[in-house]
Design brief:
The complex is a heterodimer of chains A (about 120) and B (about 110). By secondary structure, chain A is mostly beta strands. Chain A contains no helices and 11 strands. Chain B is an all-beta fold. In chain B, a hairpin with a 5-residue loop joins strand 4 and strand 5.
Chain lengths: ~120, ~110
C-alpha cells in the first residue's frame, strides 16, 4: 500500500539548515509528484513546494529563496533542504503524494521540527 | 496568493447532528477546492476533492458543494470519529493554500 514517512532532526539551531527525507513505498516517484507541507502549531498547513514526477520542482514563492527539493528515485526518497531557519519555522513537516495536481491523497505521519538554541 | 477563510473556527456539536463548515476564497477558484480531516495525533486524511468528489473509503455522510469563492463541507449525521479539525485547500493557482481550520468539538 502507499506509504510516506518523514525523517530528520527534531531540533535545529537558528540560522542553520533543515534537512528532511521522505521515504515512499507503494508507488513510483516517476509517476506521482510529492509535496512538502508544513504546519505551525495551532495553524493551518502551508504548502512549501513539490517534486514533479518528471523531476521538475516548484516552490512557494514565500520560501523559494531558502528552499530546495530533490529526489533519489533509486531509493524512493524525496529530500527537503531549507536554510536560514528561524523560530517561526517551528512546526510539523509533512510529505504528501498528489494523486492529481493539487490534491494530496496520501500523507506521511509528519515530523516535528523545533528551531531553538 | 489566494487567501482561504474558514468559518467558524470552532463548532460545538452533538452526535447525530448535521453540520456545515464554510470556506471562502479571496478570489474565484473554479471549484478547485479540497477538504481534509486532521485528528489530534496529527494524522491528515483527504475527504473531498474538486469541491464535491468523495475520496474512496470516505463515508457518504460527508459531502461538499460550492462554486466561485464560496464552498462548504457538510456532515449529515455526526459520528464520534468525526470530531476533529477540518481544512479546505485551493489548487486553482500556485501557491496552493489552506484555510485556517475548523475544530469540530463535542458539545
Amino acid at each position: 500500500q502507499v506509504q510516506l514517512k518523514e525523517s530528520g532532526p527534531g531540533l535545529v539551531q537558528p540560522s542553520e539548515t533543515l534537512s528532511l527525507t521522505c521515504t515512499v513505498s507503494g508507488f513510483s516517484l516517476t509517476s506521482y509528484s510529492v509535496s512538502w507541507v508544513r504546519q505551525p502549531s495551532g495553524k493551518g498547513p502551508e504548502w512549501m513546494g513539490r517534486m514533479w514526477y518528471d523531476g521538475d520542482t516548484a516552490y512557494n514563492s514565500a520560501l523559494k529563496s531558502r528552499l530546495s527539493i530533490s529526489r533519489d528515485t533509486s531509493k524512493n526518497q524525496v529530500f527537503l533542504k531549507m536554510n536560514s531557519l528561524q523560530t517561526d519555522d517551528t512546526g510539523t513537516y509533512y510529505c504528501t503524494r498528489a494523486g492529481s495536481p493539487g490534491y494530496f491523497d496520501y500523507w506521511g505521519q509528519g515530523v516535528m521540527v523545533t528551531v531553538s538554541s | 496568493d489566494i487567501q482561504m477563510t474558514q468559518t467558524p473556527s470552532s463548532m460545538p456539536a452533538s452526535l447525530g447532528e448535521r453540520v456545515t463548515i464554510s470556506c471562502r476564497a479571496s478570489q474565484g477558484i473554479s471549484n478547485y477546492l479540497n477538504w481534509y480531516q486532521q485528528k489530534p495525533d496529527g494524522t491528515i486524511k483527504p475527504l473531498i476533492y474538486y469541491t464535491s468528489n468523495l475520496q474512496s473509503g470516505v463515508p457518504s455522510r460527508f459531502s461538499g458543494s460550492g462554486s466561485g469563492t464560496d464552498y462548504s463541507l457538510t456532515i449529515s449525521s455526526l459520528e464520534p470519529e468525526d470530531f476533529a479539525m477540518y481544512y479546505c485547500q485551493q489548487y486553482d493557482s500556485s501557491p496552493w493554500t489552506f484555510g485556517g481550520g475548523t475544530k469540530l468539538e463535542l458539545k
